[in-house]
Amino acid sequence: MANNADRLHNAALAQTTVATQATALTQGEIALLHERATDAATNSYSPYSHFRVGAAVLLYADAQQPGEVVAGTNVENASYRLSTCAEQSAIVAAIALYGPGIRLRAIAIVNLNGEASSPCGACRQTILEFGGSETAVFYPNTNGETVWTTLGALLPAAFNLARE
Question: How far is residue 95's CA from residue 86's CA, in Å, rounded to a whole number?
Fold first, then answer.
């Protein structure tokens, strides 16, 4: 499994030129996102699917949040609808630490199963709630390579409400 994580990490680093230009992320930030997501995946509670996923979010640095990386993992439930995705787990952890005003610069999703793992529709909408169309998203594709894109590309017809 460490080999898969290394492969994902190396593929992400190979794509940093495009990612860095679009989001001003450094290679170090991208590597840290993948490292924290991989670490979180090792703590996955997935006794039913055995699909071990981790996610890490990079927060914008400002007066309310320090630009930290916060990770989460998937937590399954016998009633599948009650399961929590890793992406949402990471976002909830960031809110618990820094409050509801967090803003996401980037998110990385990793799984230890060597499978494709883009954010599901519900996670895409949750990422949008605390990010924006420019939020960088890294995830493994069907070839085991890390894909870099933006949330706007993954969720082109996003649902938004004005915040009060």
Answer: 14
Structural domains of the chain in order of their starting residue, each with its CATH number: 2-153 (3.40.140.10)
Whole-angstrom distance, CA of residue 90 vs CA of residue 55: 6
Q: What Å distances lie between residue 48 and 72, 74, 75, 111, 149, CA to CA? A: 19, 12, 10, 15, 30
Catalytic residue numbers? 87
**What pLDDT tens digit does each residue of the chain (164 aa) get?**
445 445 544 544 444 444 444 458 999 999 999 999 999 999 999 999 999 999 999 999 987 778 899 999 999 999 988 999 999 999 999 999 999 999 999 999 999 999 999 999 999 999 999 999 999 999 999 998 999 999 999 999 888 888 77
